[in-house]
Input
Amino acid sequence: MKEYIIDLFGDITNWGYSRNYIKYYLDQAGKNPVRLRVTSFGGNVNEAIAISKLLEEHGDVTVEFIGFNASAVTWMAFGAKRIVAYEDTLWLAHKSSVAVSFYGAFNADSIEEKIKELQNKKQMAEALDLIIAKKYADYTGKTIEEIFGLMGESKWLTAHEAKDWGFVNEVLPGKMNKNSSAATNLFEAMGLPPVPEVKTDNTKEDTLVNRIVDGIKGIFKNEDTNHDKIINTVMNKEFLSVNKVLNIEGFEVADNKVTLTVEQMKIINTALTNAGQEIDQADNKYNGLLAKIDGLSDVVKNAADEDAKIEAIRDIVNKIPASVVNDNNGGNGNRTFNDVAVDPINRFDEE
Output
């Protein structure tokens, strides 16, 4: 079967790279094997736990680490069938962080309250650390003490070091196809000397890393090289949503980097905050409406999903006659929604 590719290139959040994002693409993949390509500094712990479970349930997912990977994504990958990393990957495990924000002047009583709050925060962080450390230990066979020591160092591991610890199953060499001109084109675009061809022998492996290092060394051997040649500034207009938020045409990209001002960061932060609030408001409104609908009847409440609830309501409404003259109980003949909507299974008084 053809391998299905999913990319997770960024932080794990509630609305971006979330459990729903991963579930959607896993559903699209069906029973096909999946390769989840990841480069991420981590993110939301709860979302990462859910994603790990989704990978486990699929049963045939390979996580492929690219570039820098840290925090939640490192153990999120444990739900996969196999974990691989390229040789130039860096991998980081660290102790968890919780938000702490105190500002102002406090009297003795207020300070005591803040101390208690900090103690609660500390206990929360310790609980998270224990959960995460156990995940690392269960997967690698290392002791909790060894894992805590590594997390306390907050040390970036190379791909080979991550494999030695047992976090990665295989390290992928950066071997290049000599018939491909992609790397050469990239170096030319950056103003660098062409990537040299390295002959494979018993002393030096023909890998991407070795060839790039040799290419960079060539810069310093060339007396005619100047900085203006290395730095290539272009205008990038592809980030349409960000451009719209900042009311700009595009970003100047120099050396594959974009520089933002503090004011621009404030604008982006405000936009993200407002978007998050709108999402929360929409969720609250939806949940409130759903609660009101469920309150109509047990039949509606117990329906499997929204479509089933609508069908249940439609069935109940169809049972309500416009008017009924003198029923068997001697009533006035007017039946309401609640009369019809009661779950007959729970109407023991009519048995």
Observations:
- The mean pLDDT is 78.
- The longest strand covers residues 61-70.
